[in-house]
Amino acid sequence: MLQGYQSWIYENQPTIIGTAAVVGPFEGQGPLGDDFDIIHGDLMLGQDSWEKAEKTLLEESNKLAIENAGLTKEQINFYIGGDLMNQIISSSFAGRTLAVPYIGIFGACSSSMKSLALASLLIDSGSAKYALASACSHNASVEKQFRYPTEYGSQKPPTAQFTVTGSGSAVLANEGQGPKVISATIGRVIDMGLKDPYNMGAAMAPAAVDTIQAHFRDLQIDPGYYDLIVTGDLAKVGYKLASELFNKHNVPIKETQYYDCGMMIYDYEKQNVQSGASGCGCSAVVTYGHLLKRLQKGEFNRILVVATGALLSPISYQQGESIPCIAHAVAIKRGEE
Amino acid sequence: MSSSKKKKLTPVQQEYNELVKKVEPKRPLLVNCWHAFVAGGTICLIGQGVQKGFIMWGGFDQKAAGNPTVAVMIILSTILTTIGVYDKIAQWAGAGTAVPVTGFANTMSSSALEHKSEGMVLGVGGKMFELAGPVIVFGTVAAFIIGILHWLFNPSIGGLM
Q1: pLDDT value at position A336?
Q2: What is the pLDDT of residues A213-228, one digit of tens each?
Q3: Fewer beta carbons within 10 Å, N or C terminal of chain B?
Q4: CATH no., domain A180-333
């Protein structure tokens, strides 16, 4: 149901009955390594191209999430997925494997929460009994498409971010046990005129702040309503900027714990990732692999996940266009056992 | 950012751009220069050693030893690229690994490796010069301009003076 200007309240509170997070070797070595369902030792996943490796990641997390939900793929009514590849090939090809009705979305790195918000909407409105939402990214395929060949020796600035190799999937249902999706806020496209593709965190931070403020306004709540608010992949630079913006806009963010998925997945001391992590997979695997486990353990009662996306293409920035950004927020609460 | 670019931004955007400038960590220029000096110097030292080797044991003279030396450096760089080491060194070394001929070899071999999955002709053949292409194009243009200047101002060849 529409609440305020751009938020949805899910009156039936769709349940996340199964999740899966599949990651690559580098993510497995990070501090959240124990929380992921599958950690691959080979960045290629035994495939012969990066693109196929990414698709395989996604297929595995989809399959595992459906298994964890105790379902078979024939029971899934709709699959909603997004990724960073041109023409979202990873999601569409994974949709071919699943052979269930498929809705492909593109929201760059915000795809993780965009797919979850839409899948929840389908369940809440009774348009689906079971829906699958997923998002994935692969470090090498993203480097290849957006930056340079993976083995090319370029020096990354301290504002650069490291794209996560990972895929997260969630199965939603109108009943069952698991975390409940309670509301969502769909973001506006925000462009603050930044052009540096090596500083995405700074470009995305205003979009995250805009969506979070809209969420509080629409739902008429304060940050303290949540035990944890996480942004998707702002990393160190973007996190600092977002914190500054909260202060400037008088948002009492100190009432809650505010953190960023892009700062959680890697070990800054041991892993050379500059500002932090990025990619669709970042917020997806941190949410589905790590945060929901902590939520169900009772560490939090309610969390707000705000996935952030930079809506640029390699051509748009070469043509000197600034980087439009977006953020989508989804609120999740602990399900009663 | 130059003032002409700033004019296109709204005041709110300008304010945010200022804030970003304040918050974002700068590239450590001095450290980068030092790393580039050490890495570039080391590569040149290795090259010099290889050249001396060709002169001492290969029977080449100073000028003729140049070509096989470059070939050896290119092969070394390509091997390091293939085993996934060159990009790690480059993150530390910066311009130190980009400027010498090893950097040029790295641009070509990394592009060829990356696009092998798109086939031999359109992948490897077509994309091999993805990064090296501009170097060749603008290198040739620069050589052409310098050649004309050389012809114009060198009395022994003719020209104006």
Answers
A1: 78
A2: 999 999 999 999 999 9
A3: C
A4: 3.40.47.40
Whether residues A144 and B114 touch (CB distance < 8 A) is answered with yes
Pairwise CB contact (< 8 Å): A155 & B91: yes
Fold of domain A12-173: Peroxisomal Thiolase; Chain A, domain 1 (3.40.47)
Could you write out the DSSP letters of every residue in A212-277?
A: HHHHHHHHT--GGG-SEEEESS-HHHHHHHHHHHHHHTT--GGGSEEEEGGGTSS-TTTS--TTEE
- Chain B residues with CB-CB distance to A238 below 8 A: none
Q: Where are the domains of chain A?
A: 12-173, 180-333
Q: Which residue of A has its CA nearest to B7?
A: A193
**Alpha carbon of B92: minimum distance to chain A alpha carbons (Å):** 7
DSSP letter assigned to residue A189: P
Q: Which ipTM did the prediction report? A: 0.89
- Is residue A246 within 8 angstroms of chain B, CB to CB? no
* B96 in the same domain as B55: yes
The pLDDT tens digits for A68-93 are 999 999 999 999 999 999 999 999 99
